[in-house]
Specification:
The chain is α/β, with parallel strands linked by helices. It contains twelve helices and 24 strands. Strand 6 and strand 7 form a beta hairpin.
Length: 420
């Protein structure tokens, strides 16, 4: 990056967001560029996309827009909730990524996308792009639950499905709960972020309660007809380690909440909890709706599963917000999708035929303080749809301490790759 560009960005960063004086002086935040990719969202999808565009074609300018100066990763936050990990261990910054790969990182928010003009709108001004990558993450469909609202409900019934304050709130509620209390946990219908995540959380909350509040219990209301991932091993863990503590109820969809009573209703029964972990049904984050890339289902973003280009030309969507066939909504999936999108986007920019992608997904789940299990899968595009490759992955026969060690190494490597 040139000295003049650095000076310009420092000056821009010092201005108040959305200041009228700034907006009146210039419409464009950065000098216009004919070969610029703007990436919005600095998570496992966005940061990796930005990095791999630069790695594969350093002549393309990359601007990464992320409203937060650091990223708190969701994997391993169930360990935080159980008191086994500090949230700071899940937090990474962007300084090394920006410096090593000469990526311009802007700590601001995209409020609108103009596909016709090919620019994004921020409180500081507009930024033009040749191609745009969106990795916006998820939002919640509170409107489908009577009595719930997105502001007040998570303060009383935390979802803890976005890492940070919600993680710590659920942890503090568990710590404050009396011995002999009841935790009620609701799981929405799939698809949702991290299919094994709720069941790992059940296991780790049970581990904490068994150690600290052994008279307590967990009632699980799962809208799905069965455990959505690793069902055999999760059932075995609950039976062997937490028998009588975990009460799992499938096909129990929460349709109403009564906040003042800290209760949920399934239509057949009202259940009160000392702690209620309400995980709402999910959808793509608001930016996807602003950009017009959400599909007819009103929830997720359909993409060309070879290039991850959305139905809006020039805009690619990766990570939890996109519909990628059989691929689960996971950190590893977002990482894989971002690499494919980066390579095939560059091919499109160069007038080359995109390559047919192959993907991998790996996910680890802890069942206690040391033992974990993994699930792995390979995926390919067949007839325009991403499908699971039979007999190319699967589950181990049990959960082990070795898997727990491997899980920690896997996650550290994931964080390192996205931040350097």
């Amino acid at each position: 990056m040139s000295a003049s560009r650095r000076s310009f960005l420092r000056s821009a960063a010092g201005l108040a967001l959305g200041g009228l004086a700034w907006r009146s002086r210039a419409q464009d935040l950065l000098p216009r560029s004919e070969r610029r990719v703007v990436v919005v969202g600095g998570g496992f999808g966005g940061a990796i996309a930005a990095k791999y565009i630069r790695l594969n074609d350093p002549t393309v300018e990359v601007v990464l827009i992320e409203r937060k100066t650091s990223y708190i990763a969701c994997p391993f936050t169930n360990l935080v909730i159980a008191g086994l990990r500090d949230l700071a261990e899940n937090t990474v910054g962007y300084d090394e990524l920006a410096a090593r790969h000469q990526i311009t990182v802007l700590p601001t928010e995209v409020t609108a996308v103009d596909p016709a003009a090919k620019h994004v709108v921020t409180p500081r001004g507009t930024i033009n792009y040749t191609r745009l990558v969106l990795s916006p993450g998820i939002d919640f469909r509170y409107d489908e639950i009577d009595g719930a609202d997105p502001a007040r409900t998570p303060e009383i019934m935390p979802h803890a499905w976005q890492a940070g304050e919600q993680t710590l709130l659920l942890r503090s509620q568990l710590e404050a709960m009396r011995n002999g209390g009841t935790v009620v946990m609701s799981i929405p219908l799939a698809p949702f972020r991290c299919p094994p995540g709720p069941y790992e959380r059940i296991s780790l909350m049970a581990w904490y309660l068994k150690k600290a509040k052994p008279k307590s219990k967990i009632i699980v209301l799962d809208a799905n007809p069965d455990i959505a991932a690793k069902s055999r091993l999760f059932r075995a863990a609950w039976q062997q380690m937490y028998k009588g503590m975990v009460e799992y109820r499938p096909s129990q969809k929460v349709t109403r909440v009564i906040l003042e009573r800290r209760a949920v209703d399934t239509g057949a029964e009202t259940i009160r909890g000392d702690v209620v972990n309400l995980i709402p049904p999910q959808k793509a984050a608001p930016l996807a709706f602003h950009a017009g890339v959400v599909g007819d289902d009103g929830k997720w973003c359909p993409v060309n599963q070879v290039t991850f280009e959305s139905r809006v030309p020039g805009i690619h969507v990766v990570g939890d917000a996109c519909m990628a066939g059989a691929m689960p909504k996971s950190a590893f999936s977002a990482n894989s999708q971002a690499k494919v999108a980066a390579l095939n986007m560059l091919a499109l920019m160069a007038g080359r035929e995109p390559d047919a992608p192959a993907h991998a997904n790996v996910c680890y789940s802890y069942v206690n303080d040391k033992e974990a299990m993994s699930v792995a899968g390979l995926y390919r595009v067949l007839g325009g749809n991403t499908v699971f490759v039979p007999q190319a992955g699967g589950l181990p026969t049990s959960y082990t301490e070795l898997e727990g060690i491997q899980a920690a190494s896997w996650f550290n490597n994931m964080l390192r790759e996205m931040s350097s």
